[in-house]
Design a protein that fits this description.
It contains 4 helices and 6 strands. The chain is an alpha/beta fold. 27% of the residues are buried.
């Protein structure tokens, strides 16, 4: 298994532990979307993972010195995945979730992002969108 796939599996485990209503079912790692949760023989939930635009897990770079810059990076991340949504829908999921993850916001923000997330609106075809800060195990449903 590649390092990327191992990391995706680890991210999903963190996510799964934090989502109170994570569906029961067998989780299968695929490519598009990254994971399927098989609810039964005919119903699946698709979960696509992606890193926050402007930051990578391996180097943890990215500095979001204004709320606007963070908003733009989240929006850019969502729009990039929106372009591929037709691929994810080929498996005919009953729901499609997007999990945006990053290692940590530590020392990268000079504002309280949690309050901003509650007030921002993001338009998307995804049924649910989450932002996961891996290091602190903080999860926010943003759409």
């Amino acid at each position: 298994m590649s390092d990327k796939k191992i990391h995706e599996h680890q991210v999903l485990q963190i996510f799964r532990n934090l989502v109170r209503d994570f569906p029961k079912g067998k989780v299968v790692q695929t490519e598009s979307p990254d994971f399927l949760v098989r609810l039964n023989r005919k119903k699946v939930i698709g979960i696509e993972l992606t890193e926050l635009h402007g930051q990578t897990f391996y180097d943890n770079l990215g500095y979001y010195n204004t709320p606007e810059l963070l908003y733009q990076n989240i929006e850019h991340t969502i729009l990039a995945k929106e372009e591929k949504i037709y691929l994810y829908q080929k498996v005919k999921p009953v729901e499609l979730w997007l999990l945006i993850h990053l290692r940590s916001f530590q020392d990268q923000l000079n504002f309280h992002y949690r309050n901003k997330l509650n007030n921002w609106d993001f338009n998307s075809s995804f049924d649910r969108i989450f932002l996961l800060e891996e290091k602190n195990r903080e999860l926010h449903e943003i759409c």
